[in-house]
Design brief:
With 312 residues, the protein is of the alpha/beta class. Strands 8-7-4-9-12-11-13 form a 7-stranded mixed sheet.
Length: 312
Amino acid sequence: MTRYQFDLLTYFEKLGKRTYSIRIISDSLKLSGTAAGKALEELSDEGLISVPDLVKGNPFNGGEISVTEKGLQALEPYRVKSAVIMAAGFGSRMMPATSDRPKPLVSVNGKRIIETLLDALISVGIQDITIVRGYKKERFDDLLPKYPFLNLIDNDIYDKTNNISSAMAALKKIDTCYLCEADLYITNPEIITKYQYASNILGSWSRETDDWSYRLDEKGHITDYQKGNTNCWNYYGISYWTKEDSAKLREDFRQVYEEEKDGHDFFWEFIPLVLRKEKYGVEVRECQKSDIMEIDNYYELAQLDPSYRTKE
């Protein structure tokens, strides 16, 4: 399946049977009308969509479009079925809110931060979810009454290494999956999608930032991953990795962690984005800054949730 075919097919699967126009399709998917029309006709010819009024030479003639059973079967290899969530850290800048619980379990307006991610994953049918826990690890058991299917893995050296040790703890689970940070408060659950085509990392466009960011090379792959940049993409810790790239990640994590000097001190994302970036072609998956809130400290927490403003 080509990329344009995939984009159209997942678009129709998400929105369901309805009448579309080429303009709506091309604007929504950021394609030219010609490219959208060509992909539309190809999908129809292959029986992946039903377009009753499709006419040769006029790729869209106002008919309702729906994904066929064959189309759903064609999408199945691209379905994301699992997720690994890194949640071992302390969250010192969130004290005193993190004095008795890890940052992902801090409530914001009545909902724990990690629940925004869990609910987004569940909404697209993902329940094979592994959480790597460390600081106050027993508190993650509080999630089990609501999410009994969670797989909890312990990283007992989280305070002696960087987050690559969490990747190592869940190494066998990194396989055609979402790989996520646990401390992102998701305000738009649609950033987690049912299907993925290529390895990617979420990013929002920024003219200037002092946070972690990246640019894209001429092939549209992530490069220049660094802290602080201009005309770049802000990095968000929600990524997807294909089966092929997952296999490379598992091997590269193991080699760096066990064989490289200071291998325990790496951020996991540094390996595919910097240290061994020639082996990967990671794309950006665009989101808006309003889709995710990164709560970096207690002051920001109190700004979002007034109940913390009276606490010392």
